[in-house]
Amino acid sequence: MKHSQSSLRSASRVIACAVFTLLVSTTAFAHTALKEAAPADGAIIREAPGHINLSFNGPVKLVKLELMGVGHEMPTNFESNSEPKATFMIETPGMHPGAFTVNWAVIGADGHTVADSYSFTVDPSAAEDHSGEAASHGH
Amino acid sequence: MFSLPDNWEMASLLAKLLLYFAAFSIAGGSLAALRYSNGSRATLFSNFSTVFVGAVVGFHGVLLGFLVQVGLINDSGVGGMFDWGMASILLDTSLGDVTLFRLLAFILAGGASVVFLKKLQYTDGKLSVLLARFLFTIQFAALIILAFSHRVSGHVSVLSIVAQTSIMLHFIAFALWIGCLYPFLQLSKSTSLKILQKTLKRFGDNAIAILSILFLAGILMSWELLDSPFDLINTGYGVVLLVKLVLVAAILAVAAINKLVLVPSMLASVSISRLQTSIRVELAIALAILIVTSYLSTVVGPASHQM
Fold first, then answer.
1. Per the CB < 8 Å rule, is A15 touching B249?
2. Contacts by residues B287-292 (CB-CB < 8 Å, ≥ 24 positions apart)
3. Helix spans in A26-138 (H)
4. How far is CA A48 from CA A68, A97, A98, A102, B224, in A?
5. B residues 123-162 lying closer than 8 A (beta carbon) to A
6. A138 vs B: CB within 8 A
7. B230 and A CB contact within 8 Å
8. N or C: which end of chain A has fewer CB within 10 A?
9. Which helix (H) or strand (E) is B126 found in, with range?
């Protein structure tokens, strides 16, 4: 019985040490996230952009980029076999006034898939450019 | 702080659970056959059947996990999972590497278990030592490949070599420990009290080493995964990690009761019944731990992972 109590005490100490060690851990690292997009999410711009810029917080492989107009896909020079990098500039020839949605997906350095979309509007009649949000959220 | 998983995340979570179930079946079935068997043909058949079922489930779980990622990217319903163009793009990423590693592991484990099962069926359970060693080596190699795949992909894959090694050891240790529970449950139904007690005592002694590795590796990983101590209460990831720690403490308590009270006092069938109940409780807690772990690695990320 004494042996049992001693073993239980030892087990309690191990658990206490584990919790304590967790409490003093201090290291951090970053996960895949879209830091910045231009045009940004919700932006209203007067001039049709010649390209889209996507900036991530680390090297990622961009595996999907669709620029959707209302009911149709716009042409881009996106190629899915690009090397991992943090910044992408996708040419968007032939853009016109209207609402657009950018659907994108990346594979991060940790192998996790992050896919999301954001929208912006090209409106030549807008009083002034509205920059929108700096970056969109993924999942 | 928390978000409910969407459909794709639920499917990813299911695929992850199938992977864990499969890995643990392979680890437990193999280790039980090697070290904790009564040597009877029926027991060995049960052990290798566990490995085989694990390999089949794992193979399909890995395929499901990969197709779910294809579907998540296409975001066009179930049909989007079968876009071979996108699948071939993903095969060229670390996700593809992990998928191929894991499929290879399950093919190896499944193949070795089939040879074992055939030999048991046609040779009255008598295997040459050399062949048995070869097949066991393949099965444990499959487990190591599965563990290695966590170095290639996942939150820990971008951390230091210490954290990457830790997750491998953590995975293997937990798989060996929890994987043996089901074989023990089966053994308790078919073997004599004396042999069962002796076998469980041997496992209990070995488990001390396994648990030490499990804890040390878990601590080293958590050290790097958390930004600060306050993450444990301030972030979704930390809170879920705390839930996991509570569950681990609970399963350790049940394991301690098994080792220190139930196994030494096993003298009659009523004791076996208690032991079986206790193992079932352990299995239930282990399932909860796996669900929490899958949630941690699929739905939420460490603090600086939040977007």
1. yes
2. B288/B247, B289/B244, B289/B247, B289/B248, B289/B251, B290/B17, B290/B20, B290/B21, B291/B13, B291/B17, B292/B240, B292/B243, B292/B244, B292/B247
3. none
4. 14, 7, 9, 14, 45
5. 152-155, 157-159
6. yes
7. no
8. N
9. none
Q: Please state, in angstroms and rounded to a whole number, the distance separating the CA atoms of residues B65 and B99.
A: 8
Residue B106 phi/psi, 5-degree rounding, is: -70, -30
Choose the mutation target among B158, B231, B261 for the interface with A, i.e. most A CBs under 10 Å. B158
Beta carbons within 8 Å of B209's beta carbon, 6+ residues apart: none
pTM over 0.90: no
CA distance A53 to chain B (A): 19
- Give the helix/strand (H/E) hosting A85: strand A85-91
CA distance B73 to chain A (A): 6
Taking a contact as any Cβ pair under 8 Å apart, which residues of chain B between 241 and 280 contact chain A?
241, 245, 249, 252, 256, 260-261
Q: Could you report the per-residue pLDDT of B251-300, keeping only the tens digit for each?
A: 999 999 888 888 887 766 667 888 899 999 999 999 999 999 988 887 77
In a 13 Å sphere around the CA of B270, the CA atoms on its Cβ side amount to 1
Name the E strands within chain B: none
DSSP structural state of residue A58? E
Residues of B in contact with A7 (CB under 8 A): 256, 260
CA distance B90 to chain A (A): 8
Token couple for A37: 């997009």
CB-facing half-sphere around the CA of B82: CA atoms within 13 A:
2
Distance from CA of A28 to the nearest CA of B (A): 4
Closest CA to A53 of A134, A126, A130, A112: A134
ipTM at complex level: 0.72
Tens digit of pLDDT for each residue in B217-257? 988 888 888 877 788 888 888 888 889 989 999 999 999 98
The neighbour count for residue A74, using CB atoms within 10 Å, is 18
Strand partners, A89: A53
CB A75 within 8 A of CB A95: no
Q: Do A137 and B304 touch (CB under 8 A)?
A: no
